Every structure is written in C-alpha cells, then in structure tokens.
Amino acid sequence: MLRRPFGLESDFAHIAIMKRILLSSIILLVLSSGLQAQTAPDAPELTKLLQDFLAGAGHNDAAMHERFWADDLIYTASAGRRIGKADIMKEVREEGPPKPGDETTVFSAEDIRIQQYGDTAIVAFRLVGTTDKAGKKTVNNYLNTGTFLKRDGKWQVVAWQATVKPEKKEEPKP
C-alpha cells in the first residue's frame, strides 16, 4: 500500500475546498453581473425628453407635463409634499402660462446620470432653476431622481424625488 507523507491528505482536501470556493465565487459573480445596470442605450432619448420637459416646465406647458408624467406617478416634492399627476396637471392648468411681467424661471439639468434596466431607467441630475423677478436673478439647485418606465414605446416618469441642495457654508476661520 502506498503511503502519503504526513499531512498530504489534508493538503489535497484543502485544495479541493479552495477550488469549490473559487468556482462558487465565479458563478456568483457571473449571476450577479446580470443584476447590474446595463449601459443606458436610451440615454440620448431620455436626456432629450428631460431637456424638452424642463424647457416647457418654466412656462407651464400642459402638453409637456401630460407627456412627461405617467398617470400612476408618485411625486415627492422638495418641501415634503407627495402628489400625483392629477395634482400637477390641476396646478399647471390653474396657473397657466406666465404673463408679461410675471416672475419667470428657466430650468436646466446638470450632472445627468442615467442607469437603465431594460424598460426601466433611473435619471438623476442637478436641477438648476434661475428665477428672474423684476430684474433680480436668483439661482436654486435641487437634486432630482426620476424613475422612468417605457410603456407602449414611450418613456414616462412613474416616481420622482426632489431635494433642495443645501448651499455650501464657509467654515469659520480660526
């Protein structure tokens, strides 16, 4: 009978265990990679939709709001108010387009990040609102995140979160 040197059996067992752990890790990595965000093939379309919406939002374009928001929208405003599409459409129609001399706000999106998961996309960006009131301009920044679903070939927002971006405060000098 052939005898192995002392401890060799445990070395072979250890190698077999390490192989199983390595193989399990590789399988887990491959499976979990399918859960990662895909490259966003629809990023140009989503970016254009966002920019068109923001261009219309400054002058209460009801048709643009109707196109942008899904009927089952959940919108959490920066002030903590939760509303739906019907609430938004009611406000847009009541306010109507701005009249000459009214305060006007121009909206733009910066630092846009889009992650797409099939027919679902997350769009995060910094919303910049520049308001002109009687010749005095003020700028407000918000961090917005929208969840878009593609239904019947068109993207619409089903969830939206807006957060006021705090202003950077200068540290007191010692």
Structural commentary:
With 174 residues, this protein is of the alpha+beta class. The chain has one domain (43-164): Nuclear Transport Factor 2, Chain: A. Helices cover 34% and strands 37% of the residues. Strands 2-1-6-5-4-3 form a six-stranded mixed sheet. The protein is globular and about 80 Å long. The N and C termini lie far apart (82 Å).
Q: What is the domain tally?
A: 1
Q: Indicate the overall shape.
A: globular
Unreliable parts: 1-6, 27-37
Kindly, what is the distance between the CA atoms of the first and last residues, rounded to a whole number of angstroms?
Answer: 82 Å
CATH architecture: Roll
Order of strands side by side in the largest beta sheet? Answer: 2-1-6-5-4-3
Order of helices and strands: HHHEEHEEEE
Structural class: alpha+beta
Q: What's the gyration radius in Å?
A: 26 Å
CATH class: Alpha Beta
Largest sheet: 6 strands, mixed
Fill in the CATH topology. Answer: Nuclear Transport Factor 2, Chain: A
Beta-strand fraction estimate: 35-45%
Report the helical percentage. Answer: 25-40%
Task: Please supply descriptive tags for the structure shown above.
174 residues; six-stranded mixed sheet; 6 strands; 34% helix; disordered N terminus
Secondary structure: elements and pairs:
Blueprint: H1 8-33, H2 43-57, H3 62-68, E1 69-76, E2 82-83, H4 85-95, E3 104-117, E4 120-133, E5 136-151, E6 154-164
